[in-house]
Design brief:
Oligomer: homodimer
Number of domains of chain A: 2
Structural class of chain A: alpha/beta
Order of helices and strands of chain A: EHHHEHEHEHEHEEEHHHHEHEEEH
Number of strands of chain A: 12
Shape of chain A: globular
Strand order of the largest sheet of chain A: 2-8-7-6-5-3-4
Helix content of chain A: 40-55%
CATH topology of the largest domain in chain A: Aspartate Aminotransferase, domain 2
CATH class of the largest domain in chain A: Alpha Beta
Radius of gyration of chain A: 21 Å
Chain lengths: ~375, ~375
């Protein structure tokens, strides 16, 4: 894959193993981004109120095709946190209601649900998941142990953040729909790591980041809501589109697309990113990345004296791999890896555990992981930062 | 001022008389913007979690100096709509409470307050203001006719949008504070049109756009809240900064600065915009613009057969001037002016009236206004678009 390295803007002197946090934009997409910004500044009124809206529409059409859904069932949002806030704020939670989730979710989403559940006297149920996960079937059984007669919605990550695990959300949501629950999938890490087919899924609501694995500029994400549930979702930012004087065909779009003056160029680059992936056979790139991820997983686990968090296969492992790590100072360890070894890799607390997670994308190779392993070995020898 | 025209990116073929809607960025600020974006993409993790935070802090320090307030009493927001939503959502409205405002406010803010007031059983009071305004004193008397024992907050524009009028908000807020009310000023159009001194004001809360008259890229605005009232304001987007595991010295900052992955480069250019204005003696530029605005106001009124909306002086008129216009198709008229005459000027409905508003900044001159006047004269002759 090394011929693809030239497309990235990333610094040469850093071993970049943290694609998962914020992605990294490829050159043709970044150049398109800045060209849109220049076009905006050359005639701001024409761009923001006329031409830019046409580009936005075309962009949603391209993303809708990529995700298999109607473009008007998608709205662009800054990031998945925005989408989760929009849903949590709007969802008509009653005292005693429960949102069933796992104890593996992204911390900012936990905070959001806890905030809105507390206001309503509802409960955010973080069903404990036993690690390592043994199988899809056992995961599903364990997850639904958290179900009660008060459960109204399922909220679950497609691919978890600190533990880097793909969860069987398709199956979970099929079962949840049979039980009459609303399903909301946090797919922050999903687009371009897993194929997504929204219209043929049991996902009622889905948010994904384009600025991670789809490689668009930061601040470009989407919220999908099935047509019949769209009336449930109020705008997070009330603006001209709310009770619009010149409504479009989609109230969903009016509510969520218009939210004050901003530079929405990042949204417009999504078709360019999709085209870049197609032209460079990203399905094959992603598969090669997964092979590298899985090939190196046992080594990381061995160095850290840990067991893998799930079976080492495509079902659970995509382009991220996390291992638990014994360190009392995760933030210091992460900084030390960056400053002393020029290795950018996250070391994250989650509950009472800490995880080190590597990400692999087209520009990475075996040498990058070897540098990580060598650095950890060296740190173990020289410091007390890793036990 | 024509030597300043070269600093703008605006198209040469357009007579740009709508600076008010979205501003326009100057070249050195725009270049800095895109450089920050490149720095971000060269090492996203280091930028978003380390270097960028230092730049943000420096930026708020510069803006705090410019507005005379402590940097930690300011948070950056995308736009004033975001700020108004954050306050309206957080403000603990009780049934029967009233927010006193005017009938001249920005439509998106009306919608926001009406949305949250309706939820709480509270009232958003749009006190009718007689136009033309006769004097500061009469405005103040008329405004406070809307006051009742249930009024909890004053919400008022520093400079109105469709009518383009500077209102006596300093005096209004002094009186409101004496009456024990909370004061919230929508200063979307204020920074760089009027001098602002937050710490010596009676403004409890203030939002301003930097992407309008301060000429930064789109999506850069701020919310100021006096220290003692900051605990009232919950995050509009709940994220890591809410009940933070690693809190900073300012909960206000933690709550509002962290809200998911985004490109915050626009915020970072604010010191560059301030420097640009200083280096180019923007106080004098702004004064010259106001002179041009006021000099031409009687002509526009005459052409449109309307009376000025306020006395033609610095107190009420800054770099915007609106006149009511008789047209049954404002959107079509605006489009026609742009497409047939290459004049970009807004024609806006407000209540049962319609206004045409011109803005003047450094790149404008008398010829621009002459082109507008000629175009309107021509349209009156040739079409029925203007009565």
């Amino acid at each position: 894959m090394q011929h693809l390295k030239k497309h990235f803007l990333l610094r040469d002197d850093i071993t970049f193993l943290n694609f998962g946090s914020f992605g990294a934009c490829v050159k043709p997409v970044f150049e398109r981004y800045q060209k849109y910004q220049l076009e905006l500044e050359r005639e701001p009124v024409q761009f923001i109120t006329v031409n830019g809206l046409t580009y936005l529409d075309k962009s949603r059409a391209a993303l809708g095709k990529y995700l298999n859904c109607h473009k008007d069932d998608l709205v662009y949002v800054t990031n998945p946190s925005y989408a989760v806030n929009a849903i949590a704020k709007s969802f008509n939670l009653q005292p005693g209601d429960e949102i069933l989730s796992t104890n593996l979710e992204y911390g900012a989403c936990d905070k959001t649900w806890e905030y809105y559940c507390q206001k309503a006297g509802a409960r955010f149920v973080r069903q404990p998941i036993s690690l390592p996960i043994q199988s899809k079937e056992e995961f599903i059984i364990e997850f639904f142990k958290g179900l009660t007669s008060r459960t109204k919605m399922i909220f679950i990550s497609y691919i978890t953040s600190s533990t880097g695990l793909r969860l069987p959300v398709e199956e979970i949501c099929v079962i949840a729909k049979e039980k009459g629950l609303i399903t909301f999938v946090d797919g922050a890490h999903a687009p371009a790591q897993v194929p997504i087919d929204l219209d043929n899924s049991s996902f009622d609501m889905f948010t994904g980041a384009c600025h991670k694995w789809m490689m668009t500029p930061k601040g470009s994400s989407f919220l999908y809501v099935k047509k019949e549930l769209q009336p449930l979702v109020d705008p997070l930012i009330v603006s001209w589109g709310y009770k619009s004087m010149s409504p479009s065909d989609s109230t969903f779009l009016d509510y969520h697309q218009t939210n004050g003056t901003r530079d929405f160029s990042a949204f417009l680059t999504i078709p360019d990113a999709i085209q870049f992936m197609e032209e460079n056979d990203w399905t094959s790139v992603s598969r090669q990345c997964r092979e590298l991820v899985i090939h190196n997983a046992p080594t990381l686990c061995k160095i850290l004296g840990a067991a893998p968090l799930a079976p080492l296969n495509d079902m659970f492992i995509r382009q991220l791999f996390s291992s638990s790590i014994k360190t009392s100072e995760p933030e210091k360890l992460q900084r030390y890896l960056f400053e002393s070894y020029h290795v950018q890799v996250p070391v994250m607390r989650h509950g009472d555990k800490t995880y080190l997670r590597y990400s692999i994308n087209a520009f990475n190779d075996q040498h990058d992981l070897d540098r990580l392993f060598d650095a950890i070995g060296d740190i173990k020898k020289k410091t007390g930062l890793v036990e």
